[in-house]
Amino acid sequence: MNPAILESEEVLTTNAASILSAGPVSPEQAEAWEKFTALPMPVRTDEAWRFANVKDLDLGGYVPAQPVDDATRDELLTRSMGLASIAGRMVFANDQLLVQETLGDSLRQKGVIWLPLDQAAAENPELFRKHFMREEAILGGQKFAALHASQVRAGTFLYVPRGVEIDLPIEAFHWEHGANGSVFPHTLIIAEDMAKVTLIDYYESAVPDAPALACAVNDLWLGAGASVTYVCVQNWSRKAHSFQLNSTVVGRDAHSKSLFAQLGGRHVRSESISHLRGQGGRSDMLAVTVAEGAQEVDARTFQIHEVPNTQSDLLYKNSLDDTARTIFAGLIRVDPGAHRTDAYQKVRNLLLSDEAEANSAPGLEIEADDVRCTHGATSGQIEQEELFYLLSRGIPKKDAQRLIVFGFLNEVIERLGNEPVQEKLRELVRARFSE
Amino acid sequence: MSTATENQIDIDRTRGDFSYPESHTFDAGTGLTKGTVDYISKVKGEAEWIREFRHRALEIFRSKPMPTHWASKDLENIVFENIRYYLANGQKPTRSWDDVPDDVKRTFERLGIPEQERKFLAGVEAQFDSEAVYSNIKAAVGEQGVIFCGSTEGLREHPEIFRKWFGKVIPTGDNKFSALNSAVFSGGSFIYVPPGVKVKHPLQAYFRINAENFGQFERTLIIADEGSEVMYMEGCTAPKFETATLHSAVVELVALKGAKIQYVTVQNWSANVFNLVTKRAIAHEEAEVKWIDCNIGSRLTMKYPGVVLKGRKARGEVISIALASDGQHQDTGAKMIHAAAETTSNIVSKSISVGTGRSTYRGLVHIPKHLKGCKNNTECDALLINSQSRTDTYPAITVRGTGNSSQHEASVSQISAEQIFYMQQRGLTEAQAMSLSVNGFVNDLVRQFPMEYSVELKRLIDLEMEGSVG
User: Fold this and answer.
1) B399 touches chain A (CB under 8 A)
2) Whole-complex ipTM
């Protein structure tokens, strides 16, 4: 990929036609576009799309999102409410940078780079090329990865040099605004040896029920002994198509923690891959989903243990109401020779309505013998005893249910080990409940 | 470890000299055409509707693609043109006992197989004199009104009973191999148990060895009428020589209201066999169906016994043991379709991968909406013996609504070094310790098998372990 791609916004933003017929501009972008158009749409018989409602993937009618006007800009900035103490922040609307609150001087002097993606691509082309979308989207989302690559023009780039620890979280807000708009946020984190950082992405729609397309990619790369906590709160419009492709490369003795909160969207597809590439590496993969209405939340995960002595631990929890559907299809893979792997995978579904549907397909592929791998999947409903207990304390039924669901999801949130971030997530989940 | 016991079960293909008589009255030749189907139908003297059924099946078989988008690519190695689809009257290749490899003879010895059976199993004798045993059993259960016969006989003499369910539990078009079976089936058992009858003896396919029972394309249909009980066993633990490389059985079970069926399989085909089997049961109100399935042999086995829980309070269970040795792929599992309220299902699967063996669990659990009180429990445990061994688990669980629950758990582990060390301290060899440990791993499942099977299974595991350490 060439930085030139990222300068293509003019063409895309002035093209009023459907995004799916928008002409590409640079050779690399053209190549990605060609790949996108050449790859077939997923069909029902694709194993990678099993259970998914593939008929609902028609992306026709979406247009490139337009720059927002000043009034909207001010409104969105005031609505970008993150944590009280942060190390840095960027706010985007319709893939355009609105504001960039840079890191303190001391971090900059230590060599930390925190830039909008296009600027980083121009200023640090080598670093950018080395890590930008280097891992294949192997969970079925190749077509959407190509779409992203052909359209991406906004996002954040974070480079933390060897040994530098950033204590406070860094935040990025991505707003989508306008009917049938499409956005392509990108997050690229490079944590060198022994570096430490926490980044939170907030995906938000200005209008809660306007149709939208969001196709996001994030690449996390952890050097030896690095520690990265990545949180992504997906709260797009209730009529949005959301695609999210994550890849995390975990180096020697590095520790990655990621949490995806799936709150918004109508049809949500999330693919998350952890490559355990260095001995002693560990990846914690977490997700909470609040699915209501006619939402479909489709999560695919892959824990790839490429070398010996690595650990991964996955916990996905879904609460489902109304006619919502969730899909969890996860795979733990232990490559030949990757001995002393310790891998765990658990999905739990809480069904709150008779029309809700939870699909679970937790998988294992093990090609080494000295391993400990377990997985579990449960689907059930609220225990009547728990509910009765709360009711007997005078708590109304609706509230009692919410409390129980909240407690169910909170168990995942608490695994993050960062109290202010956890509190923020709890606040967002509560807000989702009170809609 | 001693090399002599290595690959105990893996039969050396080059050593047996197989030959077929040039011409035989009942030989359909190789390849599959409309003519083959007509031939089979004619030889069996079948009714016109069965011949039409076969022809429709052949068309479906041809139109269906191989399921390689999810299944092993090894399926592509099946050459349908080179297969003999029908050999009648127990026609078998001829060979002498001297041609049988020593290691196979040793396995028979260790398993304690009677002399006469050995010859049959090794393919030396085409006939095994079980006729007397079969007649006795048939007479004994016949008094209770039980019908126990071959598929050809069943369809010819009792169409009023069997036609109603034949091909209904597993439709011809269920998958490519069920269609193939429907086109060329022969052999297998048809059983009908009248209302309230509890069959004391387990019915064994073994009794019917003469009657093309070990055929490639067995078709079995068991109907247990209201409140009846029956147990059926097929296969045996002894390794079985086979020249036919494709085996594709269809087994249908119907448990009417309150009936109980247990179906026990021990599969130990030789290591050149593709064993692609479709097995499914329908359980009506308060009925119970239990599949006990053990897979030791074959090159590739794909088999996922299922139960459609159609009536209230029906219960389905699959107990599965798979042992995948060098070059083998045991792709097994279970399907539970909940279609009525308060139905429960239980799946317990244990697999052991030895050497380059690969074992796979594939499961399907489906609980649709508006049902209440459905429960599923699934447990799969895999044991890996060597560093090149492989295991996979691919369950798929769909649960709708608030009245149901499902839980699935799986684990993969290796034999604890501490356990082995402890046993070696007590004077056991490494192989003995491994074998004890593996037997312990599957013990709670093996105990559910009839006694003679569980004893043989234990011996087989001992044999496998001897060749796997060191």
Assistant:
1) yes
2) 0.83
